[in-house]
Amino acid sequence: MGVCAGIKRNGGRCTVSVEPGKTYCHHHDPSRQEARRRAASRAGRAKPSREIVAIRGRLSDLAEAVLEGTVDRADAAVAGQLLGTVVRAIGMELKIRETEDLARRLEELEGLLEEGDGWRDAR
Residue ranges of the domains in the chain? Predict the structure, then answer.
C-alpha cells in the first residue's frame, strides 16, 4: 500500500494509506471534490450552529437564575423574547441560504438539460 500524495491544510503531507493503483485518499482525490463539497454543505445544514448552541445555554442559565431568584422575572422575560427573536432570524437566514442553494442547483440542472441529449425535446 502507498501513501496519499495529498497535502494537508497545514502544508504537511497526508499520511493516509491508499489502495494499490490509487494516488489519493478520499479526502484529497480531485475526482471526489464535488462530492466532498455536497457532503460539507449537508453537514453544515444538519448540525446546529454555534450561535444557536450558545443561545440555548444562555436561555438555560437565564431560566436557572429566575428559579433561584437572582434575576427579575420581567427582565428575564424580555431577555428571553430578544433571544427568541435572534433564533428566528437565524432560522430565516438558514431558509434563505437553502433557497439560494436550491435555486443554484436547479439552474445547474436546467443548464445540463439544455446542453444535453435532447431529453427535453423528447418529452
Answer: 1-47, 49-123
Q: Which three cell numbers stand for residue 76?
A: 428575564
Q: How much of the chain, in percent, has pLDDT values that exceed 90?
A: 37
d(CA 15, CA 6): 9
Render pLDDT for 32-46 as a digit per residue (tens, 0 to 9). 888 877 777 666 665
Q: Are 82 and 62 in contact (CB under 8 A)?
A: no
Average pLDDT score, the chain: 85
- State how far the Cα of 51 lies from the Cα of 11, in Å rounded to an integer: 30
Helix H or strand E segment including 3: strand 2-3
C-alpha span between 24 and 34 (Å, rounded): 15
Helices (H), the chain: 33-46, 50-68, 73-115, 119-122
